[in-house]
Amino acid sequence: MEAILRHRLTKRCKIPRNVPKLGWEQAPRRSSSGSSSGCCRNERASILKRTMAKGEEVSNKQIILRDYVSGFPKESDMALKTSTMRLKVPEGSKGVLVKNLYLSCDPYMRSRMRKPGALSYIDSFTPGSAIIGYGVAKVLDSGHPDFKEGDLIWGMTGWEEYSLIPETEALFKIHYTDVPLSYYTGILGMPGVTAYVGFYEICSPKKGEYVFISAASGAVGQLVGQFAKLMGCYVVGSAGTNEKVDLLKNKFGFDEAFNYKEENNLDAALKRYFPEGIDIYFENVGGKMLDAVLLNMRLHGRIAVCGMISQYNLDQLEGVHNLFSLISKRIRMEGFIIFEYYHLYPKFLDLVWQYIKEGKIVYVEDKAEGLESGPAALIGLYTGSNVGKQVVVVARE
Amino acid sequence: MEAILRHRLTKRCKIPRNVPKLGWEQAPRRSSSGSSSGCCRNERASILKRTMAKGEEVSNKQIILRDYVSGFPKESDMALKTSTMRLKVPEGSKGVLVKNLYLSCDPYMRSRMRKPGALSYIDSFTPGSAIIGYGVAKVLDSGHPDFKEGDLIWGMTGWEEYSLIPETEALFKIHYTDVPLSYYTGILGMPGVTAYVGFYEICSPKKGEYVFISAASGAVGQLVGQFAKLMGCYVVGSAGTNEKVDLLKNKFGFDEAFNYKEENNLDAALKRYFPEGIDIYFENVGGKMLDAVLLNMRLHGRIAVCGMISQYNLDQLEGVHNLFSLISKRIRMEGFIIFEYYHLYPKFLDLVWQYIKEGKIVYVEDKAEGLESGPAALIGLYTGSNVGKQVVVVARE
């Protein structure tokens, strides 16, 4: 991480700036009917070959949000649209023009599909415009002195083949390329640093403590569990299929794991795995699981509230009844959002990259091929159909 | 506070010892029928006169819990009972024999009336034995070198005229007697140090912040509000009668106050008083108020969870729906119990005693006369019939 980038990263406790408006929110120069039929394979290959021709106007497939979503999102809430994009940063712009390689499907994106409201911490998507999310991309043209053609970056980009990113403050240059580039949508990107901050900064973990992680096989959960094991904690995870439970125990090295869908009584399940209670709960799901966890926390327990995916598609959120435990067990429960902690990214990156190289940490991705597969992949997060970190492969280079 | 006492006080983050078993939990030597009829005034005066006769066996009125309580407690859940007590510490005991002067009615006592269960942080009362609570008392006999006849103390004692307290670790000697002794059940006792710790230690307050306090005219709330005003915060309190609202605004100097029973929409009420949101919520009530507060917290807000009195008499606790705010607003919500912070008592005492002497802090008590009035006074907490700190006067000296 270069100094010039680092000093611009948002510090904790500062009110974060809004996510910058990106080029793809401007009206497309030409658009298709919005149908979901894509171009044929040959045509696509031909476009890819031509991307190096700076300044050329090319076809640019995008996944747009049709309209704000309430209830459970459907594939048809999104659509494939084809615009054009000139592969050059406009005169005077300090932005970058990138070719998107890997796009990240993250649970928080559900809140950006919602009509703007008080509870949301991030701007809603603009209906009719491309979805915005974390991704890995290659710089094709740059108006900024810190970026040059050929640089690899990760950060907020568009769900489209090419993006003009007018402000580069929220972009990270990729230096370690001896790992799969897609890792920068997950273990070495936003979910990775989320796991790192949530566990080390919010949970205040100590060796030997009892750690429970919900949605444990996801991008964040799998890493939290491995951090906790490396610290010498007892670690249990919950997930929604037996395949994921198997992954947790046999791939990620959790001490125990269970399929919450097969448990009639979550309180009883937690008591089975934590007869002495839970010191640390890494909260990814909310609702009934949180209620059961509250009954099983130990004195001075800590709950890092990272996400509540079980609640994202409900119009009426579930009530949590056992908050008196916060008093009786003197629990600290703390929510956090990663964009206030990116100043810790360089420290995180060096640690986790090293862990990966040494084989101390493993990582499982679920790759959907092609931009067209994006809507189904994103929606799959909320039914739990992904196994490991869900990535959309737009292009491999 | 003497050094020998101070070093024994429970430190934060240590698992606290159990509240010591007290003498009144032993079988009484003689008991009445358990009816609520007390002795006549002359007889009582006669007993009081005789208390100085060390070693004498005297009649000892007690308020006992008849049986565990579910739902809303009633006066008839308690009973007046008359035992006898020898006014001397047993041979070899390191305890003290005290005459109780003032007894404290505190919301947490409801949980001690409940059948022992997982969620409680403190032992239940023993049915048939005297209720236990904070009080102010005078030492009549002592087996401990740190206490002598005539010393005034506050701490855990029995709801009875005389108590044998076998362990003195949880007792505080009273040194400042230029304030009403009853203050040591409130502003200079457990509720006072609760307000101090909750506000200064848990809420991490800063000058100019927006502070909301529920049950604000109670023993803890009135002091939290005054601490916050002294720090230069904007302070709003809620209470359940217009008389209390008037007290908050005109006696305790809150900026604003409202009667929550007259508000159809707590969210709207909070938005009226906090158009820019709440930085600090001092939580005394739980339930619907907490849910409304969560919708009105500011970024990086803090919630000190001190009590949830609205929930104590419910068999099924209310669900809290807006916990996603913990993430979207990056809120820290933390429960605490005062017995882990008594090491801060000396610092607190010097500060607040000084504030009282300087007239910077005022205090309102609601005194019920006579041990017999205890059950009604205690139950009154849960209907909000007390105005200010509820004290039971057993004897004035």
TrEMBL record, chains A, B:
- Give all residue intervals belonging to the Oxidoreductase N-terminal domain: 61-169
Question: SUPFAM superfamilies from the entry?
Answer: GroES-like, NAD(P)-binding Rossmann-fold domains
Lineage, top-rank taxon, reads Eukaryota
Which residue stretches does the UniProt record annotate as biased composition, category Low complexity? 29-40
Output the Gene Ontology terms for molecular function. 2-alkenal reductase [NAD(P)H] activity
Which GO annotations describe the biological process of this protein? response to stress
Protein name, per record: Uncharacterized protein
Please report the organism this UniProt entry assigns to the protein. Answer: Tetracentron sinense
